[in-house]
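fyi for ur records
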Amino acid sequence: MVQKKFEDFALRLRENDNVAVIKRPFKADTELVNGAVRLTVAKPVPPGHKIALATIADGEPVRKYGQIIGFAKGLIAPGEHVHTHNLEMKDFGRDYQFCVDARPVNYYPADQMRSFQGYLRRRRFRITWRTASKARNSKRIFPASMA
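which gave:
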């Protein structure tokens, strides 16, 4: 069994989530290790899909982003793929408070802010008169006094 770092392959979005999102593909029978947490993933799970972080009992809410995204349809073991085959929707009470978890942004002080007024471009070659002349339009516009 291959051991990999959990944070290299999966992302837990909130502390109270019981699923994690897979970031990149891995082989079957991979053990994802994060400190004391060890998840054995028996089958490969596509990136963007979810795996269970703990046992989720039948009918128990499945949480992602700290929100209920569905309910377990049958027992879901840790490391198992969580998707439409073992997830269902039920009616439940929702709390529609707006921005209750919002926190003010801690910006840098003005003296530590960096700025750049212009466009940062990657230069692969030196511009010469020949390359610059090719980039110009073929029609030239002159002021009326020069015509």
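Confidence is low (pLDDT under 50) at residues 126-132. thats all i got for now
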